[in-house]
Amino acid sequence: MGLRKFSLREFLKKNFDFITGILSEVGLTALIMGVALAICLLLVFIKSVF
Amino acid sequence: MKVIGFNLCKFGNIIGALLLVPIIVAVFYKEFDIIPHFLIASSATFILCNVGIHFLRTTKEMELKHALCFAALTWIFCMLLAAIPFWSTGSTGSYLDANFDAMSGFTTTGLSLVRDIDHLPYSINFYRHFLQFVGGVGIIVFSLTILARSEMSSVLAFKGEARELGIRPSIVRTSRIILGIAITFMVLGAVLFTAVGISEGAGVGTSIFDGVNYSMAAYSTGGFAPHSQNMLFYHSTPYEVVALAIFLIGSFNFTFHYAVLGGKRREIFKNIEIRTMFITLTLSTLVISGLLLFSNVYSSSAMLFRKAFFQAASAHTTTGFGTVHPAQIPSLWGSAVMFIMSLIMVLGACANSTGGGIKAIRVGVIAKSFFREIKKALMPKTAWVTEKFHHIETTPLTDTIARGAMLIAVGYIFLFAVGTTVTVLHGYNTSDSMYETASAVGNVGLSSGITSPAMPALLKVTYIFLMWAGRLEIMAVLALMGFAILGLRRGIKK
Question: What is the ipTM of this complex?
Answer without folding.
Answer: 0.89
